[in-house]
Write a structure and sequence with these properties.
It contains ten helices and eight strands. The chain is an alpha/beta fold. An eight-stranded mixed β-sheet has the order 7-5-6-4-1-2-3-8, sandwiched between helices. The longest helix has 34 residues. The two termini are 29 Å apart. The N terminus is likely disordered. The structure holds uridine-5'-diphosphate and magnesium ion (MG).
Length: 319
């Protein structure tokens, strides 16, 4: 293929892209685990680590600096502040020069021991990407599991793409696949939607949920909720249609009510009574209007951030 964004450095076989936010306790554990897991596949010279420090406030950057002086295969990119995991993965992919690239978390929840099997599937040419999903949501708070399931059910209803429930960001891809991911320029990056959108042949691996080895999760419930709103606006315009449907429904209901009141006045001569019901109706309509304006606002806000064309992240230091 000749459509690469930059020259393909054939000597790197596998690039590992690892987003890190305050992972001081996990990085070395991860590094050792990955080295052990990969000793069987790649000649040691052929792999590279690209750690992306997503604005950590702990000793993450010191550990990465030290690791990169000890091991020439270790590179890092450090952001000027926290730009989010999606931006971190994007930065890592742009930097990766391997023939195959794998993205995985630093916390041990994505077992590097699976990489040889993934490499085999993608390396054989039968698949362009090897993706992973959790078989179960064991070890996750029940409330979070419940909302996660509702979210995936909703997404599959309102988008055309098939977003896989429990899919992780642990993915191994070939160059072609990776260039396709990089060709999508949007700021609002929801990779669980981007991957099915670009297509290609994907082999799925399933494994049990593994507790993170050290540190704690960076996702609060609120952050996940906002992330799911981003996902919906990034891949579906159905909420806008819902807003119009609400409008049409209310209009029809109001016509029926008008007819009812007119007939009541003409036939029985009843005066129209009840300020309470009137104010309820006003409140109800006002609520619906604000709700639908809110939906419009979400799309407008996303359009605004896209047209500003700001960079996805800013690098403070790299090696
Ligand atoms: N992460 C990041 N930026 C963020 C949040 C998380 O780079 O703003 C990294 C984090 O260091 C970890 C991975 O993304 O390597 C997954 O985060 P976490 O383990 O907190 O999420 P979970 O596994 O609970 O979904
Ligand atoms: Mg994790």
């Amino acid at each position: 293929m000749t459509n690469y964004l930059r020259p393909l450095e054939e000597e790197i076989y596998l690039s590992l892209v690892i987003p890190c936010l305050n992972e001081e306790d996990a990085i070395l554990l991860f590094y050792n685990e990955a080295i052990t897991a990969l000793s069987t596949v790649a000649n040691e010279k052929e792999i590279e680590f690209i750690f992306v420090d997503d604005g950590s406030t702990d000793k993450t950057i010191h550990i990465l600096r030290e690791l990169s002086t000890k091991d020439a295969r270790v590179h890092y990119i450090s952001f000027s502040r926290n730009f989010g995991k999606e931006a971190a993965i994007l930065a890592g992919l742009r930097q990766a020069s391997g023939r195959y690239v794998v993205t995985l978390d630093a916390d041990g929840q994505d077992p590097p021991s699976l990489i040889p099997d993934m490499l085999e599937e993608v390396g054989s040419g039968a698949f362009d990407c090897a993706a992973t999903r959790r078989g179960t949501r064991k070890g996750e708070p029940p409330v979070r599991s419940f909302f996660a399931r509702r979210f995936y059910a909703l997404m599959s209803k309102i988008t055309d793409i098939d977003i896989v429930s429990g899919a992780r960001d642990f993915r191994l891809m070939n160059r072609n696949y990776m260039e396709a991911v990089l060709a999508l320029p949007e700021r609002n990056r929801f990779s669980k939607g981007i991957f099915p959108w670009i297509g290609f042949k994907t082999k799925w691996f399933e494994y049990e949920n593994i507790e993170r080895k050290a540190g704690r999760t960076k996702w609060s419930f609120w952050k996940l909720f906002l992330y799911s709103l981003d996902a919906i606006t990034a891949f579906s315009t159905k909420p806008l249609a819902i807003a119009s449907i609400f409008g049409v429904l209310l209009f029809i209901i109001s016509l029926i009510l008008i007819a009812f009141i007119v007939v009541r006045k003409i036939v029985w001569g009843d005066p129209v009574g009840g300020w309470a019901s009137t104010s309820c109706i006003i409140l109800f309509c006002g609520g619906i209007q604000l709700f639908t304006t809110g939906i419009l606002g979400q799309y407008l806000a996303k359009t605004y951030t896209e047209v500003k064309q700001r960079p996805h992240y800013i690098i403070r230091e790299s090696q």
